[in-house]
Structure formats: C-alpha cells, structure tokens
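QA checklist item 7 of 12: single-chain prediction sanity check.
[x] sequence parsed
[x] length recorded as 291
[x] structure emitted
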Amino acid sequence: DKSTTNHALLVGPPGVGKTEIVKGFAQRIIEGKKDIPKSLRNKKVFLINTASLVQGGMFGYADQMKFLLNRIKGHEEEAILFFDEIHVAAQEKKLADYLKQELNRGRLHCIAATTTEEYQKTILKDKAFDRRFEKIYVPEMDDVNVKEVLQSIVKETKKCVLVDDKVIDLIIEKTNEVMEKERAKNKEKPSEDEKKEGKKEKANPHHQPWFSVQVLTGAMNKVVSSADTHYVPPALTEKKSKLISLLLSMNANADFRLTKEEGRNKLEKIKSLEEEIGEDEKKLKAKKNSN
C-alpha cells in the first residue's frame, strides 16, 4: 500500500532526537554510506517548515504546496519531504485534507515527526490522516547513545574546545539525576484543591539527548567566551614586543640624540607602532563587545 509504505511518522517525546535522525539520514545519503539501502541512495531530503506552511503568508498553503510540487515535478521519485511538527498541519482541516490527497496519490515520499502527546491529541483524531503514515516510535536514548551524540558534537565543533570523556560522563550522570527528580515530582498526584482548579500532571520537561546537549553546548560556549575575553592576536602581540624593545633601546641610551637620523627613525617607529596598536586594540574591543 503506497499510502503507508511511502510515508513514515516519527513519534516520540520532545528532545529525543527525531529531527536529528532525519538530518543524520540525509547526511548519510549525501556521503553515500553503504548502510543506506540502494533504493534510497539517490534521494534528496527537503525540510518543510510546517508552521510557515500553515500560516500561509501572502500566498496561502495551497499555493505554497503547488509551488513546492512544481519544483520537484518530474523528480518525485527522488524527493523525500520532511514535515517536522506535522501535528501543526493536522490541526488545520483544509491543509490536512489537502495533504491527505497528495500523500494518497503515491507520487511523494514523506517523513514526518511529532511528539507523543501531539500524536495522541491531534493526529489520532483524524484516522484518515493517521493511516497515511507508518508509525515509528522513537524512545529516549540510553546513556551509550547519548555519549556518542555528545562526542560527535565535540568532534565536529569548530570552536576547538577539548572535552574529556569523563566530563561527558559527568554531564550525562547529572542530567539523568535532574530528570529522575523531575519525573518523580511530576508523578505526584494533584491535591483535591488542585484537581478542582483543573490542574493536571505536568509533562516531563527534559529528555535525552536534548538535555545533555544543552548542558554541553552551554558549557562550551562559556569556555569560548572566556577565552575570547583574554585572547590577543599574535600580530598585536608582536607589535607590542617591538614597541617595548624600541622603548628599552631609547631608555638605555640616555644621551641618545634625537637630532641624529637613527634617533629620529626610532622615534617615528615608536609613534607608528603606538598608533597601530591603538587601532588594533579598538578593533579587538569592538569585536569582543559584538560577541
């Protein structure tokens, strides 16, 4: 049945890496990885901003979809459309009906993603929409996979921050502790007064790997920011060294006459270096302030 086999719906808690799975899948296609099935090796993944599609802008979602379909016309077999937060589209009946028609024709290949809560609250209410997708449930990552994600972030970052594996293990340990406390607290049943006010159990705010990624990247950014504050470009350091050398040379010769050509040349070099250093320090200060 093309209407199901052509379309996959990733369902899982927020922060478990549903979008990253699709990004990783697209990257593996680009890199020509051998673990990608032959039938998918020539595909191209297109990210659809579902929220913008719903808002429509000056043209409306129908025209935007037609524009998109025209862009891939003749190459439908090569294209995979990725709708992140597909529940946003499912909430709009007209757009949902439009998508159902397009998905049912079998011309498109589609991947979508939604949270477990939104799937149950929104998509399941539209059985016809739900039937268009083969559901793939994405659980929270275990510690081994979370560690691999964090290691890849450290490896791929261009900020040159070294992070020891022990630090990564500590981040995972501490974030897990915080999540366990949150979940234990959220499982507490509301009091009678809170029930009367309509208070419900809170959703778990953090999941892996998102939580650990936020902690790691936040710490790395702080290290970079701190390093930038004290960073002095090598060229500026060299100019300051030359200036100090010239000043020492002048001071070492108390009877050095500025009327002599050598003395005048040194004085001009000192003034020139002082001006250059002043300009360089202004630029460096402005750059640090902009960061």
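[x] summary fact logged: The longest helix spans residues 261-290.
[ ] second reviewer sign-off
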